[in-house]
């Protein structure tokens, strides 16, 4: 019984870790896209000067 509970807890922990990695990867892409927009806006402003 204890072994079954530990196995289930391990699987749930694994799913949590994998989903967190996916979330951080998505957040990194969002931050990168935002940085790209800021860079493009700075280049546009620089070219207008």
From TrEMBL:
InterPro entries: Entericidin (IPR012556). One of its GO terms (cellular component) is membrane. Transmembrane segments: none annotated. It comes from Glaciimonas immobilis. Belongs to the EcnA/EcnB lipoprotein family. One of its GO terms (biological process) is response to toxic substance. Residues 28-49 are annotated as: Disordered. The keyword Repressor does not apply. Residues 1-25 form the signal peptide. This is Putative small secreted protein. Residues 29-49 have a biased composition (Basic and acidic residues). Keywords: Cell membrane, Lipoprotein, Membrane, Palmitate, Signal.
